[in-house]
Amino acid sequence: MSRRLAVLVVFLFAAPIGRSAPRLRKVLPAYYFPTRVGDTRVMESDAGNAKNELVETITAVEEKDGRLLVTTRFGLGEGAGPEHRWEVSDRGVNLLAECGFPLRSPVCRLRLPVKPGETWSTADQPCGENTTLCGTSFTTGSEEDIVVPAGKFQAVRVEAAHQTTFWYAREVGLVKWVHKSPHANEPDHVAVLKSFTPGKK
């Protein structure tokens, strides 16, 4: 092998060593809840005899110990409503405060990672001075395609013991819920995501 060819071979094999390794794209946790200030969801509720729009906006997000503490404000139409506080992580979605009142212990609404058939329970506890947040049991279903006015989402189904079914999608959260009426002559109460507007970066 000539000296010139030998130098060329060494250069070709040695050159990549001096280059920086390609950066791996950071994989974000699978949050099933909006997590950016300004994110706004509009749910359209139909109880058969009345239709309403429930607007939910993220007003604050705080990172703590690998989880996000998210504050949302609700309102009917354009009216201001009470604040809720949530704990959001790759382990699930927990309600920490309802209507501005801290709960005695977190209430798990969605458990992650998704394991179809997994069941958990929540206990009764006071919420505010005159109300009680009723405990119930939940069961994780499978991921399925859900079509609502806001679009098509792949969402996790969660069945509650009180005849209510919830569907949660990544980065958006609740996209649909259905409460079965206990009376055959009354319609089910259904709420679907009408729109989702991301907050500004």
Q: Strand arrangement, largest sheet?
A: 6-5-4-3-2-1-14-13-12-11-10-7
Helix content: under 10%
**Overall geometric form:** globular
Average pLDDT metric: 81
Number of strands: 14
Unreliable segments (pLDDT under 50, ≥5 consecutive)? 2-22
- Through-space gap between termini: 59 Å
Q: What Rg do the Cα atoms give?
A: 24 Å
Element string (H = helix, E = strand): HEEEEEEEEEEEEEE
Q: Helix/strand/pairing class, anyone?
A: mainly beta
Task: Provide a count of the helices.
Answer: 1
Sheet of most strands: 12 strands, antiparallel
**What percent of residues are in strands?**
over 45%
Fold and architecture overview:
Helices cover 8% and strands 53% of the residues. By secondary structure, the protein is mainly beta. Strands 6-5-4-3-2-1-14-13-12-11-10-7 form a twelve-stranded antiparallel beta sheet, with no helix packed on it. A two-stranded antiparallel ribbon has the order 8-9. It is globular.
